[in-house]
Amino acid sequence: FYLVGIETGAGKKVRRGKANGSRENNAQKTVPIALPARLIKQGDYITRLKGLTKAGVYESVADYSFSVNRP
Questions:
Q1: End-to-end alpha-carbon separation of the chain, Å?
Q2: CA Rg value for the chain
Q3: What is the spatial distance between Cα 34 and Cα 50, in angstroms, rounded to a whole number?
Q4: I need a surface site. Which of 11, 36, 64, 71 has the fewest CB within 10 A?
Q5: Under a CB-based contact definition with an 8 Å cutoff, are residues 58 and 50 in contact?
Q6: What is the spatial distance between Cα 31 and Cα 1, in angstroms, rounded to a whole number?
Q7: CA 43, 6, 59: angle at the middle one, nearest 5?
Q8: What is the pLDDT of residues 54-63, one digit of tens each?
Q9: What is the b/e burial string over 44-65, where b = at least 16 CB atoms within 10 angstroms of the residue's CB?
Q10: Per-residue pLDDT tens for 30-48?
């Protein structure tokens, strides 16, 4: 299991939730999430991914940044 958090570049939390698993495609692992478009305005964001260890503790896996541009 994974925890996914999305926040603005300024640190405002937009969404947090669980992702039930990952998928592997062409030797790349992905963690699919659903996010309503209305929550994402134009700007910069950071996605923080945490994974559940065998000890039952969530630890950081990776942070990903992205930008949204709207007309």
A1: 36
A2: 13
A3: 16
A4: 71
A5: yes
A6: 10
A7: 145
A8: 999 999 999 9
A9: ebebebbbeeeeeeeeeeeeee
A10: 888 888 888 899 999 999 9
